[in-house]
Structures are given as C-alpha cells and as structure tokens.
Design a protein that fits this description.
Shape: elongated
Number of helices: 7
Number of strands: 9
Oligomer: single chain
Largest sheet: 6 strands, antiparallel
Strand order of the largest sheet: 1-2-3-9-4-7
Strand content: 15-25%
Order of helices and strands: HHHHHEEEEEEEEEHH
Radius of gyration: 23 Å
Length: 209
C-alpha cells in the first residue's frame, strides 16, 4: 500500500535521495536509468533534484527499473527499529521476528548435545532453513549425509529432507533463519520432544510462536 502523501516533505526528500542512491549503487548514469524507466533524462534529473512533483506513475516505473517495489521505494523507518528477542530459557533459544516478512524468524541457540543417532528423531517438513555457526562446531545430519559446520560457516537446505543438528566436541551456538513453513514445522510438538530438546533439529524443538 502506498503510504506517501505529496504534503509529506520529509518523505518526499527521502524518496528522491533513495532514487539517486539506488541509481548510483547500480553504477548507472541519469541517461541509463532514464532509458530503463522510459523517462527523459531531464525529467529524471528534476525528480532527483526536487524540481518535479513525484507522480505515482513515475514512481511505479522507477521502482520497476531499479529492481525494487513501490512500497520499498517510499518506505519510512518506523519507531521500532531496535527489537528485543523473545527468550525461551528452557531450550536455550532467542527468537526475533522479521518485521518485513512476518512469516520469517531468526533464532539463536546454544547446543551442547550431539545430533541424535536414531534417524527416527530427524524431522522433515515443508520449508527452507539457513544457519550460521557463531561458535564451536555443529554437525548437520541431512538425509543419509553428515556435514561438519565450523565457526563462521553456514548451511542452507530444504527441510523436506530429514534433518537434525547438534554440537561436536563441546557447546556450539548457531543463528538460524526459518521461513514460514520451516517455522511451522518446528512449532509442531512431537512425542518425547521435551526430553530430546537440544539434540535434534536446529532450534531443538524449534522456535516457539
């Protein structure tokens, strides 16, 4: 939804600066962006310099040419820029929602146990996960394969493959990003899940809603 009004001088200035910054970041001249947006070079120059009204049709065209969306082009910073995590001390979890994508969560967890030996304890569910090891060494079980993920290394995988993660040689901390489907998969309780916490999937029992 377009939240911008022509009377909002501060946002007007922000959008103009953003258009120029995105153009410069792409390494494009005024002429190149004007050509991509099918605007005249003089029109684009006046838009960037505040000498021409910001018309909705021009903004839509420029957003497309800059490979962004209209909402992102006119987005303003909200008051809740800094967000504190939701803490699940029982499972060593910290979780942050991603405001720009409500279906996504960022989870930090400290693990002390190795991954389960029993394949029956490996989970499979729709979605995709990305994780980075902040400290220590993690073992990722993915299907019939075993991956060693060391500090500052990352792993990304579809969660339809049976998977589990644990520590190797001492505690490790991971930071994981779960899409909507993966987060839902982790929220489903399983028999014996509390007893297995920390030894199974990334996030142990997974992030709580």
């Amino acid at each position: 939804m377009l939240r911008m009004t022509q009377n909002d001088g501060e946002l007007d200035s922000l959008v103009r600066k953003r258009i120029r910054a995105l153009r410069v970041a792409q390494g494009w001249s005024l002429e190149e962006l004007a050509s991509r947006a099918r605007l005249s070079q003089s029109t684009l120059s006046r838009i960037e310099n505040g000498q021409r009204r910001l018309a909705l049709d021009s903004l839509v065209t420029l957003a497309r040419a800059l490979d962004t969306t209209l909402d992102q082009l006119v987005e303003t910073a909200s008051d809740d820029v800094v967000v504190s995590p939701m803490i699940d001390a029982a499972h060593g979890l910290m979780r942050w929602p991603v405001k720009g994508d409500p279906g996504m969560s960022v989870v930090r967890q400290r693990m002390t146990e190795p991954p389960p030996d029993n394949p029956a304890r490996m989970r499979a569910h729709p979605g995709r996960e990305w994780l980075v090891v902040l400290s220590g060494t993690a073992i990722l079980m993915l299907g019939h394969r075993r991956f060693r993920v060391e500090t500052n290394q990352a792993a990304e995988f579809p969660t339809m493959l049976p998977h589990a993660i644990g520590a190797e040689g001492g505690p490790c901390e991971i930071l994981g990003i779960f899409d909507r489907d993966a987060r839902r998969g982790h929220q489903r309780p399983e028999a014996g899940a509390d007893a297995d916490a920390g030894a199974g999937d990334s996030g142990g029992d997974g992030p709580r809603a």
